[in-house]
Specification:
With 337 residues, the protein is α+β, with helices and mostly antiparallel strands. It has helices at residues 3-21, 37-41, 44-56, 61-77, 90-100, 106-111, 113-120, 124-141, 146-167, 176-180, 188-196, 206-210, 248-256, 269-280, 286-297, 303-313, 317-324; strands spanning 24-25, 31-32, 212-214, 221-224, 229-232, 242-245, 261-262. Helix 4 (61-77) runs antiparallel to helix 5, helix 8 runs antiparallel to helix 9 (146-167) and helix 15 (286-297) packs across helix 17 (317-324).
Length: 337
């Protein structure tokens, strides 16, 4: 082999090794380097891959609706014994958002998410709920990054704060002293409500108290009077089963009246709420007392205590501060639980 031929062979070998070493694998199954990137990008194989990926990111309304319904049925199974009828809110919300979207694609709906929810819904609370639904759908179509999830979460918090300006505690709402008077009421529903929303009891959602039964059971939220231990199973957030001790004062009263079975009998949370607000007033429903408990009682607790109470109430400390804690007077309140 001549010297020239040897040099040519060596150069060829070097170039082959260099190209191999700097080769980039493409999701389409092919590969390329800096010299062949443009050629690869225009290849039939790569173009077919791009078309397929683009098709994936087109939101298929029928498929999403079917998935949302299946998701709802699966999450409802955990609370199948609940007296509070759960409704599938995500499906109708998605239908409204999809109909209003200028483009039915993942990228467009992600980029214009706030514009879209505000186009469909007028109030911040409804916009926050719609944003949550949209996040669920988009994350299903293509997993969102942690950074993007946090951004959407903060957007939801901002909407929540707007809602809070008109729905937090009224300055002239009932006091705990006024509520205490109803603890001795001859009306068993009012007496029970007054004891459960006293300042020394974690203010659970009304639906969770309604789904509480005294004595051992495997279906409902369980309260054992001999130990004072409460086990939460049926909750709005479908949180893992959690057991904690309720205040002695409440337990002693329940023993005194020989309470047994469901706390509110066969009544649903809607029936209990309607019954209570007829007497206490529409601005003094369970949501008012839940907010008041966080603002007046929990806000004075230590960090560790706040974390524990937040777990008992079925939310995070962050939600506790941003949604429930009172910062300013409110113009309007809600009794939704």
């Amino acid at each position: 082999m001549s010297e020239k031929t040897k040099k040519t062979a060596d150069l060829k070998k070097y170039m082959q090794e260099y190209r191999q070493k700097n080769k980039v694998k493409c999701p389409c199954g092919g590969s390329f380097n800096q010299h062949t990137a443009e050629k690869h990008g225009n290849s039939v194989k790569h173009q077919k891959y791009l078309a397929k990926e683009k098709a994936k990111l087109n939101i298929n309304e029928e498929e999403i609706i079917a998935w949302l319904k299946t998701r709802f049925e699966e999450t409802s199974t955990a609370n199948e014994n609940s007296k509070t009828k759960r409704t599938d809110k995500n499906t109708p919300i998605f239908k409204m958002l999809f109909k209003a979207a200028d483009e039915k694609t993942y990228d467009w709906m992600l980029e214009h998410r706030l514009e879209l929810v505000k186009k469909v819904y007028a109030t911040p609370s409804s916009q926050q709920t719609a944003l949550s639904t949209l996040k669920i759908v988009l994350d299903h179509v293509k997993p969102l990054t942690d950074e993007l999830k946090q951004t959407i979460y903060k957007e939801g918090v901002a909407l929540s704060k707007q809602y809070k300006e008109t729905t937090t505690l009224k300055e002239d709402g009932m006091s705990y002293e006024e509520l205490k008077k109803y603890e001795s009421s001859e009306d068993p529903i009012l007496a029970m409500f007054a004891h459960l929303y006293a300042a020394d009891v974690p203010a659970l959602r009304l639906s969770e108290w309604v789904n509480t039964s005294i004595g051992k059971n495997s279906k409902y939220n369980q309260l054992i009077l001999s130990t004072g231990k409460y086990t939460a199973r049926i909750t709005k957030t479908n949180a893992p089963e959690y057991t904690f001790k309720l205040p002695d004062r409440l337990i002693k009263w329940l023993r005194k009246i020989k309470a047994n079975g469901p706390l509110f009998g066969a009544m649903s949370s809607e029936q209990v709420s309607q019954h209570v607000v007829k007497v206490l007033g529409k601005d003094n429903g369970s949501r008012y007392w839940r907010k008041k408990y966080v603002s007046d009682v929990v806000s004075k607790m230590s960090g560790a205590e706040r974390t524990e109470v937040a777990k008992q109430m079925g939310h995070s400390v962050q939600t506790q501060v941003e949604v429930y804690q009172k910062d300013k007077p409110i113009k309007k309140s809600s009794n939704k639980v």
